Amino acid sequence: MKTILLLLTCVSLHAEVGRLAPIITPDEQARWNVVAMIETEARDYVDGADGEISRFQILKSEWRAATSLPYTAASNPVTAQNVAVAIQNKRVLAFRNSYRRQPSDAEWFILWHKPAHVLRMTTSDRDYATRCVNLLRLTPRH
Asked: In total, how many domains does the chain have?
């Protein structure tokens, strides 16, 4: 069973985003729910100050690097999450390879929000991470 799950995970991570959704755990889904709430109050048509798109506020350059889907697809919450997961999986993998451990919840949120700041957070970054972690603690996991 573990071999099948690992194979499915590998296939889903390498699939074209939007065609085959990545497999995520309830804890990961809770994190994405928090990101959507913090970034846009889970609204799908919000554009950020720097041109970010979707409820997850994905930079267009990141979107383009992750998928060939048009930017208009970012308004679909499932598609947007699939793209966000693909982007974040690469960031988490790079973190694990560099630091030989999983990121903490706060580090995971900063990896999403400002990945270059993950080990040298500003006061603003710490505030963002604290808000996310506090909301995560209140988020039910099914």
From this structure: 1
Q: What is the CATH number of the domain that holds 109?
A: 1.10.530.10
Among 11-20, 25-34, 42-51, name the one with the lowest average pLDDT: 11-20
Q: Specify the pTM.
A: 0.83
CA distances from 42 to 75, 77, 120 (A): 11, 9, 28
- 109 to each of 25, 62, 69, 127, how far by Cα in Å? 16, 16, 25, 11
Does residue 32 fall inside a structural domain?
yes
What is the per-residue pLDDT across 42-76, written as a single tens digit (0 to 9) for each?
999 999 999 999 999 999 999 999 999 999 999 99
Contacts of 119 (CB under 8 A, 6+ apart): none
